[in-house]
Each structure stands twice: as C-alpha cells, then as structure tokens.
Amino acid sequence: MIPPFPSLRLPERWQIPVLAVAGVGTLAATTMAAAAGVTAVVAQILYIPIILAVVWYRWRGLAVVVAITAAYIPILGWLTGFAFPVFPEAVARAGVMVAVAMVLAALSSHVSALARDYPGIFQHAGGGYIIVDQRSLAVLDLNLTAAEMIGFAPSEVVGRSFVSLFADPATAEGTAEALKAGQDLDVLEAALTTRGGGVRWVRIVSGSLPEERAVCTLLDISRQKEDERTMNALARLAGESPDPVLRIGRGGQILYANEAAMAVIGAEAPGEKSETRAALSRAAAEATATGDQVELEVQVGDGIFLITVFPIEGEDYVNLYGKDITGRKAAETAIRLNEQRLEALLRLDRMYDAPLKAITDYALSCAVSMTGSEHGYFAFLDPEERTLTIQSWSDRAVAACRVDHPKTAYPLAETGLWGEPVRQRRTVILNDYAAPLPLKKGTPPGHPAIRRFLSVPVFEGERIVAVAGVINKAAPYDEDDARQFSLLMTGMWGLVRRKQYSDDLKRSEALYRTVFEATGTATMILDGDGTVTHANARFRHFGYDPADIVGRSAWATIFSGPVHDLSGQYHQMRRNGADNLPPIYEGTVRDADGKERDALVTAAMIPETDLSVVSVMDITPLKEAEREIAARNRELAAFAEVSAITSSLLPLPERLDAALAKVLDLMDFEAGAIYLFEGEGDVGVRVSQRWPADMEAPYEIRRLAVPSEPQYSSDRPEGVPPHIRENFASCASIPLKVGDEIPGTLNMATRREHVFTTGEREFLETSGRAIGGAVLRARFSEGLERANADANLYLDIMMHDINNANTVAAGYCSLLLPRLAGKEHLMAKKVLSGVRQSIEIIMNVSTYRSLSQRATRVEPVPLDAVIRGEISRFSELDIRYAGTDAVVMADDLLSEVFTNLIGNAGKFGGPEVTVWIAVAKEDDTVAVTVADNGPGIPDDQKENVFGRFVRNAPRVSGKGLGLWICRTLAERYGGSITAGDRVPGRPGDGAAITLVLRRAED
C-alpha cells in the first residue's frame, strides 16, 4: 500500500522526538535570526514542525502549532520590540501559520480517511492490480489478488520487471513498448507464468498514474480460456473425428462434412452426383420421412463404412455418422471363410469312401467359391518335382476350355507362371496379369483368359506335393484369400493322405487276408503254447476243418506225425530267441485220416508278439515228382549224349554203335540192334548190334515187320517176334522215324520183366528220332557232295568248252559283219549279240561261283587300268573317259562291275548310245559314275534294280544277275552303288550308276 505523503513517512516511535527537535530547532533558529535583525525569511522554517505535526497528528497537531506560534510571538517581541511594523507582521505571520495548519489538518484528515480506505479497496477489489513504473517497467506495488494469480507473495514481485511475468515473449515485447510510450493497454489477453511454471491467462487493462506510473488491472480469465478450449475442442470434435460426420438438408444438399466424410463422398464434378452421395441422399430422405434412424453400408475404395442417419426433430436436416467397418467386415469375411472352409473340410471328411477325383473336385469348387474366382485347377507334383499332373479343373474352367483332349502332364521346366509356386516354394499372387512379367509364358490357345492369378503350393513336410490355383477374382487377391486357399488345400491334402493311408491299410488288410487265405499252403497262427488261433481254408487239403482246429494244439492235429518232436523243439527255441533256426524245413505230418504226408514247414515269429505264423505245404506229389525228375534227368543226360553222338563228325557206323550202346546202358538191356533200309527196298540190313554171346541177332528184317509206331512188349505181347519171345522177357521196337520217313528201326530186349514208364518211352522215341535224323543227314550229305561234284563238272564244261565255242563264234561274227550288208548284216549282228549275251551269262555265273567259294581279301587296285581294260572290250560303243590316278580297295573281280555297267548301257541303249565314265575323289572314298543317254531307269524301279533276277526291260534278254553282282561286289569292298538319272529329275534322258569305293591310303 502507498502512504498519502510518502516523503513524510516515519515510524510512529520516532515521530515525537523528531517533532520536538524540529520545533525546538526552528524556534532557536528563528530567535537567532531575530536577534540578528532578520525576522521575515527565517521565520518560514517554522512550517517544518507545523507541517509535521499536522500531517502526523492532523487536528491534534494544532496544539503543537499553537505552542510554536505562541512561543514565536513573545520571542520576536522581546528581541525586536513591539514596534511597528515588525511585531504586527510577526503576529500576522503567526496567524497565517495557524490558518495553514488548520487547512493542512483538514486535508490530512481527508487524506488519512482515503488512506484508510485505499488498502481495502486496493486489496479487496475484484481484480488484480499492479502499479508499474513506466520507465523501468518495474513493479511498484500489487495487491494480493494479483499476487495469488501468479502464485507469488507481493514482496517477491515488487521490484521485478512487469514483462518478465509474461509467458509469451512477443506479447511481453508489445506490452513493454506500449507502457514505455505511455499508451494504455486496451483489453490485452495474455498468459502469465506462475510460480509453479504453469500459465495463468489474464485480461489486462492499464491506465496512467502521476509520476510516470501505470496501474494495470488484471482479470483472471483462465476458466474462460479453458471453457473456450473445451468449446473449441467440442467444435473441432466433428471435424477432427476420423469417422465421417455429415449434415444433409431436406433437399439433399450437404450442409456440413468433415474431412473423413469428404473422403467418403468424394469430389463432385459440376452437374454430377456420385453414387455414394445419391445413396446418402436417399437414406436422408427416408429418415426425414419416417422419423426413424436409417443405416446403410457404402463401399469406398478398399474400405467399407456403416452410415447411420439420425433425423433431428423440428429441423430441416439430418445428421449422418459413419464408422469404418472394413476391419469388422474383413473379420466377418474371415469368419465366414473359416466357417466355409471348416464346413468344406467337414464334408470332405464325410467323403471318406469317395474317389480321389471327387474329393479334389469338391475342394477345388469350394476354393473357387471362397475366393470369388471364376476358374481353378489342382495338380499333383511328382516326388522328383519335375512334372505337374492336372488332377481337377473347376466346372466353369472345363466349360470355358476350347481344347479337345487337353494334356494333363506338364514338365515343370516348361511351365510359366503356374509353376512358380514350386520354383519359389511360396504363394504367388498376381493382380495385373496383363502387366509385363518375365515369369509368364502366355495362355495356351483355347484356355480361359487370365486377369488375376493366385496359386499356392501344398506342402507335406518340406516337400511340395501339389499346386492349386484360382484366377479372375472380381477384386484383387489378398493375403486372406491366399491364407484361406492354402489352409483349405492343406486340409484337403491331409484328408487325402488319411484316405490314402486308410485305403492302403484296407488294401493291406485285404491283401494280407487274401494272402493268408490264398497262399496255396495250410497256414495257421500259433500262440506260445502252440494253440492254433487262426487257420485258413487250405487245411481242408489235409482233411481238417479250419474251425475245428482253431483253439486246439497243433501237436494234437497236423503235427501229431513224425514231425511232432522237431516242430515242437523249433517252436520253443524260436521263442527263446534262437536265431540260427531254419525258417523252412521238411517233415512228415499226419492228415485227418491218419495218413502221413511229406510237407514243407515254414515258420516265423510275428514281430513284437508271442505269435508265430506257420505254413504247411503238402509236397508229397513234389517228392514223387523229384524221383520222377531224377529218372528223367538221367534219361535227358543220356539223350544229350545220344544227340551229341549222332551229331558228331564220326562215320555213321561208329555213331550208330555208340548210340546203341548208350541206349542199352541206360535201359540196362542185354540185347539190341539197328536195321537200316536202302531206298524203297523191303529188306533192312543190320548195321549195329549188341547181343548176348550165345546168341546173334537176325542180319535182315523185312520192312513189313517194322512198325510205323513204337511197340512195347508190355502193351502188345502178341506182337513180339517169335525169336524174341523165345529168348527174352521184354522188348521194344522203335522206328527211326523222321517226319514221314522211316529209314530204319531200333530193336532192344531184356531177359527180365520190364514195364516201360512214360519217361522211358519218351526217351527211346526221342533217341529213335535223333538216330533217324543222323541217318538221313548222312545220306543227304552224301547226295549233296555228289550234286556239288556234278555242278562243278557242268560249270567247268561251260567255262571252258562252251565259252571257248562262244569266243570262236563271236570272232567269226566280228569278221563277217563288215562283209555283209542289209538283212544279212542285221542277222549276223543279232547272232553276235546273242553270243555275247551267252558269254556275259557264263561270266556272271563264273563270278558268282568265285564269290561263293572264296573269302574277301581286298588290296589297293589302280582304277584307271581296270576301266580302260573294260573299255577295250566294247570297241563298238562310244565311251568317253578322261582317265584317273585313283587307287581303290578291291580285288581282281572289280573289272566285272564295269563289265556289267558298260554292258548294260550298250544293251539297253543300243548301238547309238554314248557312255560317260567320270571319277571323283573325296576324303576317303572314290566315286565312279557310269552314265548313258539310253532310256534310263524309272523312279519306281531305282530301289529294286540291284536285286537278283530283276529285269527292268522285258524286251532285252538276260537273267538279271549283272547289277546284283555289282552290288554284291561293292558291299564286299566296303562301298556302295546307287542308281540315278544322268540329268537329275529326267529319267528318260539316260541312267547314271554311281559306284562308291574306299580310297586306298597313299
């Protein structure tokens, strides 16, 4: 609080002493001045104690004033006398002092009253007040209200800069400039910094005070500011809301839309109205008409919003509040897809007995439906991950496919995008198939077009077992589609594998049951005590009903025979862990009729049980067959020896003696003989025999006595010859029959009774055919040797005598031709041609004979000499040859090739024909072409022209051996020969025969 007279402010205890000193001092000074003659000026200092007394004590201070003036007048009269004018002036001056004191007392009383009221007004006014020095901006004073606003004590603020209290430097700077300029602050709102570091908002109004002071009135507006912030926050609530908020008027116009709502309704072009706005306007009209809330869902891009329309009673507008339910919809979709997938898996589980294709078809149709796709496929991947095999197409894909019999197996290396899930081993999503992508290989013709693509691999552990894919969803495929698709396919594969395991188990059970029942042996399961727990139907072979032996001991039934001890011992040892027991052994068992049978017993423990499986095979027929086989083996061995003997190169008599001895030794017969017939004669001569020393076999037999079929004494005793019946007990007569011919007979006998078994009969009859074949081969060989000798004789006659005659005739014809003319000349020429053809035939036969009688041995042969030698033999022909230095691999028969080639050209081309012989050397071959301008070789005959006895021109005589000999010799030399046209593509312009031979090394 500021006192009424700040300069006179003094503590109350010091007021009386100061007042006494001032009064006494001023009176003393006045007395001294009066004594010196100064009465007017010095007397003015008496106002000092007068003013102090009046100011400090107001009306009570007049007593001090009266005392001072009462003392002043006598002192002055005493010193100066009471003379005029000094004394009257002193009295007047004293009166003025008293009057001034009274005025001051009145003023002091008034000021004191104001001073008493000022602190209350200052401290308890409604606002805060701060008195500021306008020059220094220091706080001179402030009331408690102002101090409380900023949380300081008044003494802590006085003396501080007023602008240091401002929180905003810019506001502080503006306020300082205004105060220093003496300007009043007109309703300034500012934030002051509180003691605790907070902010107090105040409204400041300033006014000027004397002495360059200003009083600032502070009104606390913090609550108002808080209310304003609250109101502003409420006002921004709709605008800042992430959810759409709109207000639509009755006419459908949008009165308000926050930023989120603008994103929903979108920008609207002039004259156009978006579908979303139209839907909102319809919903607003419905809510206005019914007075009820209306809800609708709108799709905005990838988001979905639920819009609730609230009608406002009594207003011409409705409020719309939106909520983004994309996540909820996604969750609902995921739940729906999960339910669909679980429902599909449940139904798949019920398709336990359905075929595999029905299962994959249904799972694929569910996947297409769940993902909203148009088409789908499912393919198995082979264990080597090399081939994808289509298992299922979706129904619409099959309908849309325009390919007849589309293939189902695709090598992975040739697949494009749909093979990527295997190569990348992850899901592949492509929502813009038209975009350039190196992974694509295009869509095959006739297949549905692809816009969007989703494919997932199906894993079994770390191995990919299948690939599934869908295409052409209306919206882009996302991870949820991929996850649901993959889960469905994986679940389906699990069911498929379970079905496969179950089917395998069923098949295994059926297989093992079938095997158990159809092993072909009597099979049973024995427990540790030897009790039969299972028995198959094969036990009926031993006379046991399977139902009767189950529950009984095997040693009381089938093992009651000689095998009893051995099988029982093995049974116990096997359960004691013995591992050196034979799994298969032979023994004798007893059937239900008590008959003993040879059996093969197989036994093995069933793992991790005390059970064993035992099978019993009846091998009685096998044992009998073994004995039979042993006998047959002996017979076969003997027959092999007989065959070896009859096929040997020994003379026929020696072969017959050895064969007869081998047969008799095997049969253990004492007597035997072989008789042969010559030609159609009726008498057979003995050529081999082994007879008891005291007897001799007949030398001859009649053909009528030889049977056409084998005869055995045990079959027809009456058919045994008398000389045999008289000396022997058993005999056999085996015709040496080969085909329809019987060149002889094998007779044998024994003095003991003998019944010929089937094996012995087969042996004897087979041996008879072998001996008969040896006889016929010997006779054929003799005939062939005679025929070869005759043929060689005929060929020698042809080569020497006939060929010499032909040579002489050809010579005379050659001499005769120039001397003849006309018809005689033509006839002589034909004779000469016929003779030469005869010579050609003889030479071809001679060449063929050489080819068949000697081995091929090629050597380097100069080609030029051979060709020129043959040209000289055909002097009547126009032969054009430039010569060559080529050396080829051939023999002395090479000239025959050119003889035939040049001769054929003249034969078919006539006397006017021209023959060209050209030689071309290549890397390791030499090609000789003999061409002519004759009639040529038709295309359809070029392949067959080198065949044996092929004649392409019926009008020309010959046997068709020439070109065949050429080919034979070419192949003999390791070369080849081909027929072509002299002018390519024009067979009628002449033939060209090309002989290719191996070139001799330099």
From TrEMBL:
Pfam families the UniProt entry points to: GAF, GAF_2, HATPase_c, PAS, PAS_4, PAS_8
UniProt entry keywords in alphabetical sequence: Kinase, Membrane, Phosphoprotein, Transferase, Transmembrane, Transmembrane helix
InterPro entries the record matches: GAF, GAF-like_dom_sf, HATPase_C_sf, HATPase_dom, His_kinase_dom, PAS, PAS-like_dom_sf, PAS_4
Record EC number: 2.7.13.3
Reactions performed catalytically: ATP + protein L-histidine = ADP + protein N-phospho-L-histidine
Domain PAS: 114-195
Residue ranges constituting the Histidine kinase domain according to the UniProt record: 894-1001
Spans through the membrane: 20-50, 62-84
UniProt xrefs under CDD domains: HATPase (cd00075), PAS (cd00130)
GO biological process: regulation of DNA-templated transcription
GO terms, molecular function: protein histidine kinase activity
NCBIfam families assigned: sensory_box
The protein, known as: histidine kinase
Organism in which the protein naturally occurs: Methanofollis tationis
Lineage of source species: Archaea, Methanobacteriati, Methanobacteriota, Stenosarchaea group, Methanomicrobia
